[in-house]
Structure formats: structure tokens, C-alpha cells
Specification:
about 200 residues, alpha/beta, Rossmann fold, Arc Repressor Mutant, subunit A, 2 domains, 6 strands, about 15% strand
């Protein structure tokens, strides 16, 4: 069973999300809260959180709420009324695994939950373009690693080329994935090329 929690302050929309989760096979509604503070009192572990970014009166909202929940071991799928590019980019940058508009159909919400549960990311097609237009906030070292990933290099090859450990390569890749929302290696390669990052190889042949 995929355990799902909801953090949403609007009672009507909160009830709608509850119904979507409760009737879906393979999903379990683990908890419901009106704010991140209320959610913390539930003491849940390792759930997918459907999070509204705008939580008036809450101590935490926006990317701060995303980062808090991710830091507590949860996977965050934002379901927000906001379709502003900055909100989408900042939420993914803070660690959200997905971003949906509140206009999303039930089938898309369920598909996004499944994607997140499988370790993938999901951003509504209408919002995904914002991520392509936004600059990637990566360090010089992360850019080097992304160039080599795009060049088809293995983690071991990258470690040897940059004189760092494979474990360090993994740490950098994890940060790149968190910042970009791209989880699979093929997605990282495509992202690099789309952003004009030139693929390079650590060795010939």
C-alpha cells in the first residue's frame, strides 16, 4: 500500500483529495492536516504528502514547508492553485517530487502519486516548461559531473576523472536530482543538453 497524507487548509478541496485517495486501490490515507504544524503532530513516517503551498497563518508554507517535510523523510507532491513559474521552480528546488495544479483531474493526481511512489518525478505538462526556462542552481562541480553524465560516463569513470570518490559522485548526483527534479540518468542527460551544457567524456573510445 502507498501511504498518502494531505496538508491542505481549504476544507472543500481537502475533502476532495481525501475522497480521491480513499477510493483508489493501492492507496492508504495515512493522515490529514490543515498545516505543516498540525501534520507534525501526527508523527507519521515515510509518507507521500499532498501539500498545498499556500497555508495562511501557518508557521511554514511555500518552499520552506517543502524543505521541512522532505527533511523529515517524506516525499512531497505539491497540489497548488499557484501556477507561477517561481513557485514551481522553488518547490522542486526545495525537494518536491512533483507539482500539480489544483485544476488537475483525478486520474492525473493518482498518476502523479504512483510516479512519486516509484521514485520518479511528476510535473503537469502545462507547468513543466517553467523548469526548462529557469536557470539550474548548480555548483561548478555539479556542472562538471552533469557534463560527464551527459557524455555517458559511469559513476566510477566520473570519480576517476575528477579525483573524487564514487560516494562523493553519488552525493553530488543526489543534490543535482533534488535541484532539477530529474531522477533518471536519461532525464539528466536530456536536461543538460536542453540547457546548453556540453556533454564530455572522461576518456576516449
Amino acid at each position: 500500500m502507498i501511504r498518502v497524507a494531505i496538508v491542505e487548509d481549504h476544507p472543500v478541496f481537502r475533502k476532495g483529495l481525501m475522497q480521491v485517495v480513499e477510493v483508489a486501490p493501492g492507496l492508504e490515507l495515512a493522515g490529514v492536516a490543515r498545516s505543516v504544524d498540525d501534520f507534525d503532530t501526527l508523527r507519521l513516517s515515510g509518507v507521500i504528502v499532498l501539500l498545498d503551498l499556500q497555508l495562511p497563518g501557518s508557521r511554514l508554507e511555500g518552499p520552506g514547508a517543502v524543505a521541512h517535510l522532505v527533511g523529515s523523510g517524506h516525499q512531497v507532491l505539491v497540489v497548488s492553485a499557484s501556477e507561477q513559474p517561481a513557485d514551481v521552480v522553488q518547490a522542486i528546488g526545495a525537494g518536491a517530487r512533483g507539482y500539480l495544479s489544483k485544476q488537475a483531474e483525478e486520474t492525473e493526481i493518482l498518476g502523479a502519486i504512483q510516479a512519486v511512489a516509484q521514485g520518479r518525478t511528476y510535473v503537469s505538462a502545462t507547468l513543466a516548461g517553467y523548469l526548462l526556462l529557469a536557470p539550474i542552481p548548480i555548483t561548478a562541480r555539479e556542472r562538471e559531473i552533469l557534463e560527464l553524465v551527459a557524455g555517458g560516463e559511469t559513476d566510477q569513470d566520473i570519480a576517476e576523472q575528477l579525483s573524487i570518490s564514487v560516494r562523493t559522485v553519488h552525493s553530488h548526483l543526489d543534490r543535482i536530482r533534488d535541484k532539477t527534479g530529474s531522477r533518471r540518468r536519461a532525464d539528466l542527460t536530456r536536461l543538460a543538453i536542453e540547457r546548453g551544457i556540453i556533454p564530455r567524456r572522461s576518456k576516449e573510445g
